[in-house]
Specification:
single chain, about 350 residues, alpha/beta, nine-stranded mixed beta sheet, 7 helices
Amino acid sequence: IDFYPIGYPLSERKFLLKHNKDNFEFDIEKLRDKWFKTSYLLDRKQCGEELALTRFHNYKNQPLRFRFNKEFTGKASQFGINLRRRKPTGIRAAIIREKGVNGDREMAYLLYLAGFDVKDVHMTDLITGRETLEDINMIVFVGGFSNSDVLGSAKGWAGAFLYNEKAKQALDRFYQRDDTLSLGICNGCQLMVELGLVYPCHDKKSKMLHNDSHKFESGFINVDIQENNSVMLKSMSGSRLGIWVAHGEGKFQLPYEENKYHIPVKYSYEQYPGNPNGSDYSTAAICSDDGRHLVMMPHIERAFLPWQWANYPENRKSDEISPWVEAFVNAKEWVKKRIYK
């Protein structure tokens, strides 16, 4: 196959075009603005002039930057993970599903990779009493669009717990135990907030509202892991990682001052689109006072392998896993200490 070199990269932010005796020079930043202007004009119709202009200004001012823990090697063996494990560990987690959710397969594999034996639990199992969660130490409510988001995100899913005695009893008993963890991702986050599972003692309840942009937001963004008390994320504080968001109602409305909440993960940029929904305090996740129950809108199960990232550090091409795996290893170790003490 014949090929012909037509160009090469420059260190300068410019584009040079030569043809015979003609020479042209273009500023790359200006070209990008020209290219992006069509998106800006479409954004004006979808989310209004203010946010469309904010995105237009910020698309080049919110670069992806990553900061991994110095101890992170990218190798599964660092966390004692056996990629070929076939035997059960006796450390049990359950994925709770409702019709319309997704991401359960990815989450099941992530839990299994970290060392959990994973059980698939549908809401019908809880409603009929076939499943009681008595032998489960961690539950995960996955993302998606339960009941097609009729009446709002997770409203129907919450009703399935509130108005079915056996399902409600199983959930209540699970949260009354002191050897359990829970995680809600996206639609699961909306569910746990709707049920008041993170801050049950708050008189003013947190809410998940429609994105400020009035549209579904999907993208690969930066988040910062703060100093925190989360069982899953405490060891990862100080990291800046990449992760996917995909939601229409992802705005955390937190009625109290920030110090009334534990916010382990924040969007790295306060303004749109780095903060894709306009959440109070740039919140991407909140966790309970004891650190055991965590909810987050970004999809951690879509970013635990390097190839899942839209952009991964060039100098880490040999990584087998991404830093997000550590959160689930932390959860497994926490449970292990309590069931084998």
